[in-house]
Amino acid sequence: MRDQFEIRDADAAGRIGRLEVPRAGRTVETPALMPVINPNMLTIEPSRLSSTFGVEILITNSYIIRQTDRLRKRALDEGLHELLEFDGAIMTDSGSFQLSEYGEIEVTTEEIVQFQYDIGSDIGTPVDIPTPPNVSRQQAESDLSVTEQALADAEAIDVGEMLLNAPIQGSTYPALREQAGRHAAGTDLDLFPIGAVVPLMNNYRYAELVEAVAAAKRGLDADCPVHLFGAGHPMMLALAVALGCDLFDSAAYALYARAGRYLTVSGTEQLDELDYFPCSCPVCTEHTPDELREEDDETRERLLAEHNLHVTFEELRRIKQAIRSGNLLELVDRRARGHPAMYDGYRALLDHADQLEAEDPVSKGSFFYTSPESARRPEVLRHHARLDRLSTPDRLLLTEAGAPDTDEYDAAWRVLAPFGPFPRALSETYPFTAGVPERPDRQGQIAAAEGVSRLVEANPETGFTLAIGEWHPDARELIPERVTVKSLREIAETFNADS
Fold first, then answer.
1. Are residues 349 and 385 in the same domain?
2. 106 FRET partner, CA 20 to 30 A, in 78, 356, 359, 463?
3. What are phi and psi of 463, to 5 degrees?
4. CB of 57 within 8 A of CB of 28?
5. Could you tell me the CATH number of the domain that includes residue 67?
6. Catalytic residue at 93?
7. What is the dihedral angle through the alpha carbons of 287, 288, 290, 294, rounded to the nearest 10 degrees?
8. 106 is in which domain, residue-wise?
9. Catalytic-labelled residue, pool 93, 143, 344, 360
10. What is the pLDDT of residues 163-202, one digit of tens each?
11. Quick one: pLDDT at residue 442?
12. pLDDT tens-digit profile of 195-224?
């Protein structure tokens, strides 16, 4: 049991949590974004990150500090918090990014973890091997063994109250990611970053990102706080949170600003191509695109970076409210419409609906059917899985309309796409209070037919009649042959007007 992380609210696999960082004397609410701070190039002062943006935790690179004489001396003499002028929690990376970029670094896990402790880091990181996508399985396994040894080396170091990361590698091999997650969860380490996924995000390979994260999560325990290394674009945060990621870090706010790039929740725009700002943050309300373009390079870069942070933190607040309200997947659905690659990622997420269902609350506020993908949500899967728990009478009518005023049937259950059949007494319970279209689509009707089929198969002694409207032929084909199918018109005259 990891006492430093407490889950307060949940929706799908997303959660609002409280991460205790004892060395900093801080409690960080998750999901949280950690802005990346390059101590050699401060686009926005860390003190302003706290006062203006409410940043509770940031991340910086201990390897850069160690390799830069003036920074190393100040960090050791004054401490990391004083060096950065930030009184929140600070996570430090170990140099693994440099290792992935340049092939080698001049430091061991023992040396860099000890250095992170000595300068006052609150959360340290061992030297893992970030294995990029599409390498051979042999290389991925070899790199993973080195990373697992780094975890063991870090675990053996006395770091007092400093928390330690247990990075999860495995390239694009789900079995290795799951193995790495299970191994990491078995250590005494504290946080669990999923690494080497930046190439997937940079190339819009969100479906593969989902597979990597879902696999790692299968190996981790529910109380493991998960950090998605290098993720921080607002476009993909809802998807990542729905997968169960709690912490994010990003230099994108600064790097994109340096290149004149403007972040939105549906993608990235070039400042040079904008005539209007689609945002109400202070930067966008106080400047027009023309005015921002006229600023000197340093001012323009700073203001763009501020906008990029504003839009990112706004999205995180929106995600937290969606978790609290129980409609996170509806937010993911909306974000998926912003880019084809995000749509691929959303569909890949729903391929793991069974995994999401294990953590998804049984009851919450609302269910809105907003696209064909809604038919694949965990709530639908859960209802279908529980249909065989329900007892049925000898003669059962399943109907999209009201209950008939007749004794021809022993009971009349409702049929609602995408859920399928359920006892009328459950009509006011979640998720059957769902907001659904008056004209169900093909996928919703198919899901409803699958529910009918499951109920029929579980109850061979019951006689079933199904009264439905115009269903898609693909849905009708799924109805078992022994079910008597009638149109709503055939039995409409027997329905109660109040039903």
1. no
2. 78
3. -90, 125
4. yes
5. 3.20.20.105
6. yes
7. 0
8. 5-357
9. 93
10. 999 999 999 999 999 999 999 999 999 999 999 999 999 9
11. 97
12. 999 999 999 999 999 999 999 999 999 999
